[in-house]
Amino acid sequence: MRILLTGAGGFLGREIARELRARGVVVAGLVRHADQSVGPQDFVGDFLRPDTYAAQISAFAPDVLIHCAWSGVPAATRDLSSQYDNVAASVALFEHALEAGAKRLIGLGTQAEYGLTTAPVNEDAPTRPLTHYGIAKQATGAALMRLAQRRSTGAVWLRLFGLYGPRETAPSMLPWVARQFAQGQVPALTPCTQRWDYLHVRDAARAVCDLLPAQTHGVFNLASGHAPPLRETVLKLRDLMAPKITPDFGAVPFGPEQVHCLAGDISRLQAATGWAPQVTLEEGLAELATEAFGALAS
Known about the structure:
Order of helices and strands: EHEEHEHEHEEHEEEHEHEEHH
Helix content: 25-40%
CATH topology of the largest domain: Rossmann fold
CATH class of the largest domain: Alpha Beta
Number of helices: 9
CATH superfamily of the largest domain: NAD(P)-binding Rossmann-like Domain
Number of domains: 2
Radius of gyration: 19 Å
């Protein structure tokens, strides 16, 4: 099997590439910079510009496309209209992969497609995205499914929930809180009463790879299936790193578009693949603590 992987130098992409290669799969990774390349088939390109990758895709002739690349992942850019550049670019990528011989397309969506959720959601829940990021992801997933239908190919759209882990490339809450604790500072937080599902990046990569032999089709949630109160998660990290610090819960008010329950039902994915998370939250938080202390010492 020959896999074309976009975003292979990113947070999730590099873990998928590592897992695929460990399973003996031939991978060609599309990376933004030459120093992100780790395999002999990797090539540099910008998925927003088909002219930078089209020839390489044709030459590689993938059996499957796994599309992880996206422009505008940091929170500060998620409500910019430039998010829609990703939709047209993704459709062009899908079409190039199909023309090169791909028989299966796997794309990475987001829980933001569901909008303001107050309870765990399954894949049949209404999609009411609020941000340009969520709307663009939803449109890309719909385009993926339509192309697959017209070409009679398999397609999977994975709605990813709270991804975390070491070497995260976009700013997010848990690594920031870990850095605060490592520096002996008191993090100013919301009340953290919301329930939050965190999935370790290695478990997410395994789930994507487990889909390859399953020949599944459709939309799937990709989450841990466990959503404790966020305050509980923060305090677990605090106990690992700075037991004497009391986080300033409530110092930051909730915004008007605060999601109070970020939790995905993963029974459909588990039934299709047999996948289950293996990295416990405690193990993942310990990795974040080690990384934060290491960065402080360097």
